[in-house]
Amino acid sequence: MDVLTTIRDRRATRAYTDEKVERVTVEQLLGIAVQAPSAMNDQPWAFVVFDGAQRLRGFSDQAKKVLLAAGQLDFSPQIRTMLTDAAFSIFYGAPVLIVICATSAQAQAAEDCCLLAQTLMLAAHDAGLATCPIGFARPWLNLPETKRLLGIPESYHPVFPVILGHAAQTTPSHGRRPPTIVWPDAARGR
């Protein structure tokens, strides 16, 4: 697949098959992902990978409890309904969760991790796999007790959780608005 087609066709997938993704495949994708741009070539990232849809289901139940108990989070009624539904998994039945972690607390480290995440998702799509960023997992993954429980090093800062697997269905495009572009008058910039 050419890069422009990959960019246009990649979608967040929220339905996965039971088909396993081999560790070697995950490692190959991460090997490609680390080719992402990094400020000052700092490469401030590390990965914590979990596999097994049932394992992720248990993680989802724990994360949903934390999210619902956090009074400062203001969810829409639709989101609250999803999170209170016992059948709903924030990991959508995917077999793999890759937690992209910043190895520094600096803002640029988190930005670099997001650049890497996009590279990872494009590489996965090109390899015939599906992905979806899981923002719901981030608050739970950053809790000190969660880090201890899951074996995430204390010095890692989970920035971008992304699930990976084989799509159970094709996700259609919702379309994109045209870009908003501002070209200030050159005379104003003097």
Q: What's the total number of strands?
A: 4
- Overall morphology: globular
Average pLDDT level: 94
- Could you say how many structural domains there are in total? 1
CATH superfamily: NADH Oxidase
Discrete helix count: 7
The CATH architecture can be given as 3-Layer(aba) Sandwich
Strand content: 5-15%
- From the alpha-carbon coordinates, what is the Rg to the nearest angstrom? 18 Å
* H/E series: HHEHHEHEHHE
Alpha-beta content class:
alpha+beta
Distance between the termini: 44 Å
Mind describing the biggest β-sheet?
4 strands, antiparallel
Low confidence ranges: none
Q: What share of residues is helical?
A: 25-40%
Summarize, please:
The protein is an alpha+beta fold and 190 residues long.
Describe the structure.
The protein has 190 residues and is an alpha+beta fold. It has a single domain (3-172), classed as NADH Oxidase, CATH 3.40.109.10. It is built from 7 helices and 4 strands; from the N terminus they run ααβααβαβααβ. The longest helix has 20 residues, at 107-126. It is globular. It starts with a helix and ends in a 25-residue tail after the last strand. The model has no long low-confidence stretch (mean pLDDT 94).
